[in-house]
Prior knowledge:
By secondary structure, the chain is mainly alpha-helical. It has helices at residues 2-9, 22-30, 58-67, 85-93, 106-120; strands at residues 47-49, 76-80, 98-101. Helix 1 packs across helix 5 and helix 2 runs parallel beside helix 3. The two termini are 24 Å apart.
Amino acid sequence: MFMKIAFQKAGMGESLHAVVNGREAIDYLAGSGIYADRSQHPLPAVVLLDLNLPVIPGFDVLRWLRSRPELAGMPVVVFSSSTRDEDKAKARELGAKDFVGKPQTMGGFGEVVERVREKWLAGD
């Protein structure tokens, strides 16, 4: 919810497509089921991936994503409350391009949106 508000404040509200669990993330990225219509559910320019997703954990989503040749180059930014060095190392090992800690304030979410925009969406 906070990320959605931050994207809206940055004038990019329509750019954020959110799912509620790892199974939905995989279905969205695969274009399966209700996500088959790419005009309604376009492939993202960058994936913001939480590690603590219900149903299928974020690391498993990242592993699945990197196993798909057609999606393997898609930039993934892990967005997590974890501060563990092991999680950061594993995310990079699995192909994440960046690891961003979840902020404690609403302003911090705006900073994350700006970081993503500058680093991963500059060409859009």
